[in-house]
Specification:
single chain, about 325 residues, mainly alpha, two-stranded antiparallel sheet, 11 helices
Length: about 325
């Protein structure tokens, strides 16, 4: 669902960017006030895990399309919605700047479509009220699928609205929705299955990791979460190393565009200078465009850990300094 710059007009890009920035500011404030000791390392390693998992595109049978998990619902289950949103945003920023995955102008749209719709809308409105502590696998399964499907469908609707608002006439609203909604329904089911599997395993072996489960004592927390963080980081690096097994079929957004226009990409329909500037900036920062090395997944996962844990740790440190001064 990563949007390219050609799908977004400058006014829409600015509006989405401002909206995303406001939500990020709220997230940062929430992280400052978070009193949970293990939140910083968990944000880092969970971000790395989602980055690596997003690189594994799975084929959608009978369509010629592929999809990958967004990961917002899973992140929110472990970190809470606001920390999850900040973590997923870090993943999207690394993908955009380091790997040229998603347009620089479209970054605000991608943050809203993938981050806000899953972490801040679908999870608190569906997963949180429907899930119970120590739930059965069947309940975890259907709640996870429902939440992931709704989150991705909302993102798909947002993409179509943003393209129409941008004046992309080759992608009319009704026709674009006709392709976007069914393919992202299938992708959402796939993500729901994967999310349910991970949550069930966590509930069986480390239930205190889940946000809705009561935490253990602080002493046990510090000792056990360091080990958990190390294991999750290791799994992320392993997944990143095997990212070459991903499907080469176009993703749901590219597939939908191709069904309408005959091509997976469209030409820019607005003044070229703005897009050229954005592309030049992105080319200068993208050291591994299109994930063109075997080590891309490992490097990306490491960057996400450094950025996410670094930013969240700095926010917590500043908060502690303020509290000490008071």
């Amino acid at each position: 669902m990563h949007m390219a710059d050609a799908l977004v007009s400058p006014p829409v890009a600015v509006a989405a960017g401002v909206s995303a920035a406001i939500l990020l500011a709220i997230s940062a404030n929430k992280i400052k006030k978070n009193q949970t000791d293990h939140i910083v390392p968990l944000m880092g390693v969970m971000g790395a895990f989602i980055f690596a998992a997003q690189m594994i595109n799975f084929s959608i049978p009978g369509t010629g399309s592929s999809g990958h998990i967004v990961g917002g619902v899973l992140l929110a289950c472990v970190l809470g919605p606001w920390a999850a949103f900040l973590t997923l945003t870090s993943v999207l920023i690394v993908q955009c700047l380091m790997f040229a995955d998603g347009g620089l102008m479209a970054l605000g749209c991608n943050i809203l479509n993938m981050g806000a719709m899953t972490c801040l809308v679908a999870w608190p409105l569906l997963y949180k009220p429907l899930m119970k502590r120590c739930a059965s696998f069947s309940r975890i399964l259907w709640v996870s699928i429902l939440t992931c499907v709704v989150g991705l469908e909302l993102g798909a609707v947002a993409v179509t609205i943003e393209t129409v608002a941008s004046g992309i006439t080759v992608l009319p609203l009704a026709k674009f929705l006709w392709f976007m909604l069914p393919i992202h329904l299938a992708i959402g089911i796939g993500e729901g299955l994967a999310t349910a599997a991970v949550i069930y395993v966590v509930q069986q072996y480390k239930p205190e990791l889940l946000i809705q489960t009561k935490r253990h004592s602080p002493v046990r927390k510090r000792r056990s979460y360091a080990k958990v963080a190390l294991i999750v980081a290791l799994v992320a690096f392993i997944i990143g190393w095997f990212s070459w097994v991903a499907s080469s079929d176009p993703d749901g957004l590219e597939w939908s565009i191709a069904k309408i226009t005959g091509h997976t990409e469209i030409a820019t329909q607005h003044p070229a200078v703005v897009y050229q500037t954005a592309e030049q900036i992105q080319q200068s920062t993208a050291l591994m465009p299109d994930y063109n090395t075997t080590y891309s997944g490992v490097v990306g996962a490491a960057l996400v850990i450094l950025i996410t844990a670094g930013v969240s740790g700095l926010l917590r440190y500043k908060r502690r300094r303020i509290d000490e001064d008071e």
